[in-house]
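mind reviewing both lines:
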Amino acid sequence: MKSFIFSFLLLSTTLSLLPFVVFSSSFTSTNPIVLPTTTDDDNDLPVLSEVLDTNGKPLQIGEEYHIISASWRTGGGVYLTNLTNTKCPNDVVQHWEGSKDGMPVKFFTMDPEVAPSSVVRETNDINIMFSVPTTKLCVNETVWKVGDPDSTEQGVRFVVTGGTLGYPGPITIKSWFKIEKVTKTAPFYKLRYCPDRYLCPMCYVGCSDVGLTADRDVVGDKRLVLNDQPFWVVFEKFQKTDA
């Protein structure tokens, strides 16, 4: 009888420890605890990081900023000029001189996958528009877009103006850009042409970074172009005294 009681107690003790043993075995170096990513509580989608300016503040939609080289050694800011003898200036160029901030731009975004926001977030599809005085004839020639392959430059596609704000679809697909961070610490970014499929489900668009290329018509300055050597930039808040 004593032997039976002892065996019963031993079995009970072993069974009571089983859940602990099984639970503990799941926490090993090969099976770490995975913490959830930051999400929007309303739709359970990841919240993208805010794009920051040189003061560490989020870029505000509709506000004015300079797009400037991340290193003053590689030139200054971006500006609008006329290199191709068109009715309106539509060439997007970077100053060769590091002290030149260029012309201010505004950012606009429309992303149906996230809640409306007043800030620009990394990898959002955005429109970029020069915020400069213009003539009535050229009032619609300040929004950035990707140009058609250039017949004189071995198929190079320059960044030009003449794009459209909003209205996703095949006609406006060339007007959408993204901002992506290129470093973990400093607020250095690159521009990228890679529109999301929801903007035009039937469109096929190849993705490419926005880089620079020397132009024989602009001594020292460089045109923005699609290539695999991204132009590292920072965003500086425009001050009225800059005008």
